[in-house]
Design a protein that fits this description.
Structural class: alpha/beta
CATH superfamily of the largest domain: Zn peptidases
CATH topology of the largest domain: Aminopeptidase
CATH architecture of the largest domain: 3-Layer(aba) Sandwich
Number of helices: 10
Strand order of the largest sheet: 1-2-4-3-5-16-6-15
Strand content: 15-25%
Number of strands: 16
Radius of gyration: 24 Å
Order of helices and strands: HHEEEHEHHEEEEEHEEEHEEHEHEH
CATH class of the largest domain: Alpha Beta
Helix content: 25-40%
Bound molecules: zinc ion
Distance between the termini: 29 Å
């Protein structure tokens, strides 16, 4: 059953209202209130007990699988420079990542599935706070989302500028990288710059260590495994003629495999201990694990792909693409529940601006595809009669 155009028009209006009133992570009170009222008006049960501002709407329609669909609600601390009529009314805040669109798509899917009910099972519509940097998804997991609402599978999508409008990409494996940060403190012995033999130079140790860390990707990890280690800050010294006592390095590590991530941390610990020691300098590593690898379950990815080819056709659906080295906190949910994260193409015209850009504005033309995708995924995963159909995975895979 196709999605009524009146619902798509309504979803565009919701999206623009969210866009005009963006709220930052864990402060999405007005957005959450609006979402909760709409879900209640569609006849869903509503839970607001998770992660400060999260909203979970539940639609029960007989026995069958329990599927979660997740959207994010938060905006970014960026000043909007676009001049659309629904631009942000708050200085220094904007929906620069399209979470306004993700929420509108999920709301419209809830309205449509509740009205049509061509499935047998339960759907949890999960509106998550604080995807940007604050790990709202992790907070929902820690607050017991999956104990309170056990699910057979969970799905999320992200609009993707640079991918042709309405194309859908899903991988049976990594979609997005892990995102960790580190700080390394090097402690030597200060001395006059003209008499280096009387001290221990942390800057020389830092230089060697930075080059050493770059060999992890080239010498210690297989060339087939993606990893990025970037030292982005180096602070040391106050005067031109004195060797300082300490140097501090900071940076970030991105990986596409949990095993490579674990290996990299262990090698970094060894290097931070051993390389500075050769210069009489002590090294200490403080490593902060951030978002994990966004790792799709192969079966869930296949189910999502099956829905995608029905909605957009095999020519516009891709199963297996290059993952992104950016990160996504839906990864925390995928660690405890099988599922899949998809990209929905937002357009690849020359004028398309990227996510987190001050001129970014979610492309309303992809809302209908998003609503269709969620609807078909639920109808296929929770069929009214019999078991979910299996996809012939030799079809249409490039
Ligand atoms: Zn973002
Ligand atoms: Zn985002």
């Amino acid at each position: 059953m196709s999605i009524p155009q009146t619902l798509i028009t309504q979803a565009i209006a919701w999206r623009r209202a969210f866009h005009a009133a963006p709220e930052l992570g864990f402060e999405e009170h007005t957005t959450a209130q609006r979402i909760a009222s709409l879900l209640l008006s569609f006849g869903l049960e509503v839970n607001r007990e998770f992660a400060v501002t999260a909203v979970v709407g539940t639609l029960r329609n007989g026995p069958g699988p329990v599927i979660g669909l997740r959207a994010d609600m938060d905006a970014l601390p960026i000043q909007e420079l676009g001049q659309c009529e629904y631009r942000s009314v708050y200085p220094g805040r904007m929906h620069a990542c399209g979470h306004d669109g993700h929420s509108a798509i999920l709301l419209a899917a809830a309205a449509h599935l509740s009205a049509t009910r061509q499935f047998s099972g339960t759907v949890h519509f999960i509106f998550q706070p604080a995807e940007e940097n604050l790990a709202g998804g992790q907070k929902m997991v820690e607050d017991g989302l999956f104990e309170h609402f056990p699910m057979d599978a969970i799905y999320a999508l992200h609009n993707w500028p640079g991918l042709p409008e309405g194309h859908i990409v899903v991988n049976a494996g990594p979609m997005m990288a892990s995102q960790d940060t580190f700080e390394i403190t090097l402690t030597g012995k200060s001395c006059h710059a003209a008499m280096p033999e009387s001290g221990a130079d942390p800057i020389i140790a830092a230089a060697q260590l930075i080059m050493g860390l770059q060999t992890i990707s080239s010498r210690r990890v297989s060339p087939k495994d993606a990893i990025v280690i970037s030292v982005t800050q180096l602070n040391a010294g106050e005067v031109i003629n004195s060797i300082p006592e300490t140097a501090t390095l900071r940076g970030t590590v991105r990986c596409l495999s949990p095993q490579v991530r674990t290996t990299a941390i262990s090698i970094m610990e060894d290097m931070v201990r051993q390389i500075p020691a050769g210069f009489g300098v002590a090294g200490r590593l403080s490593y902060r694990s951030g978002y994990p690898v966004t790792l799709n379950d192969p079966q869930a990815a296949a189910a999502a792909y099956r829905a995608a080819i029905e909605v957009v056709g095999p020519a516009r659906a891709t199963f297996g693409a290059e993952p992104s080295m950016a990160a996504e906190d839906f990864a925390f949910m995928l660690q405890v529940c099988p599922g899949a994260y998809l990209w929905l193409g937002a357009g690849d015209d020359a004028g398309t601006v990227g996510l987190h850009h001050p001129h970014y504005d979610f492309n309303d033309a992809i809302i209908e595809t998003g609503v269709n995708l969620w609807t078909r995924l639920i109808e296929q995963s929770c069929p009214l009669h019999g078991t979910p159909a299996q996809l012939n995975m030799t079809q249409g895979i490039s």
